[in-house]
Amino acid sequence: MRAVVADILSIRSSEDIVRVRQAVRARAVEIGMRLVDQTKVVTAASELARNALQYGGGGAAHIEILNDGRRRALRLVFEDSGPGIADLGRALEDGFTTGTGLGLGLGGAKRLSHEFEISSTPGHGTRVTITRWN
After folding, report:
1. CA geometry: angle 63, 11, 89, nearest 5 deg
2. Nearest CA among 122, 113, 133 for reference residue 48
3. 80/125 Cα distance (integer angstroms)
4. 111: enclosing H helix or E strand
5. How far is CA 23 from CA 27, 49, 87, in A?
6. What is the pLDDT of residue 103?
7. What are phi and psi of 90, to 5 degrees?
8. Cα–Cα distance between 23 and 1 in angstroms, integer?
């Protein structure tokens, strides 16, 4: 499988979340994703970028285009150096939040993706990787 890093975007403000959404949509269009799939991957990206800003104090989004010879995908990696997540299992449960949101961000992003990975170390930050195949 071949992966090409298309964009690396800083997440430091709410305007950066908008830029992440726009860049993900542009790359989804570029690889020929249908509108429904574009909406799913953009929604997941928005939730994860917001989490990186709100809970991680900011971070970065990496947008990669994958090609396995038969199909293409977007792989998105969101990283922050925030406080991390003490209980990943609980954090993925709908309704669980440490803030003021609905607690649907991580679980929702997982449901909107074909592949989902998360790693977090308390005191050292969080890394979430999602992939949506075309």
Report:
1. 80
2. 113
3. 5
4. helix 105-111
5. 6, 12, 31
6. 40
7. -65, -40
8. 22
As given in the structure block, the two tokens for residue 33 are 């994703």
* Amino acid in position 82: G
DSSP helix/strand/coil, 46: helix
Over residues 109-131, the pLDDT tens digits come to: 999 999 999 999 989 999 999 99
* Residue extents of the structural domains in the chain: 2-133
Residue 32 DSSP one-character state: T
The answer to whether 92 touches 106, Cβ cutoff 8 Å, is: yes
Pairwise CA distance, residues 103 & 106, whole Å: 8
> What would the CATH number be for the domain defined by 2-133?
3.30.565.10
Total-model pTM? 0.90
